[in-house]
Amino acid sequence: MEKTSLIETLQTIPWFLDLKPQQIEALADISSIVHYKEGTAIFCEGDRVDNVYIILSGEIGVDITIPTRGIVRITTAEPLDIIGWSKLTPVVRQRTASTIAIKDSTMLALNGDALNRLCEDDPRLGYIIMRRIANVVASNLLTIKLQMMDIILQSSNETGLTTR
Question: What is the structure's pLDDT at 122?
Answer without folding.
Answer: 95
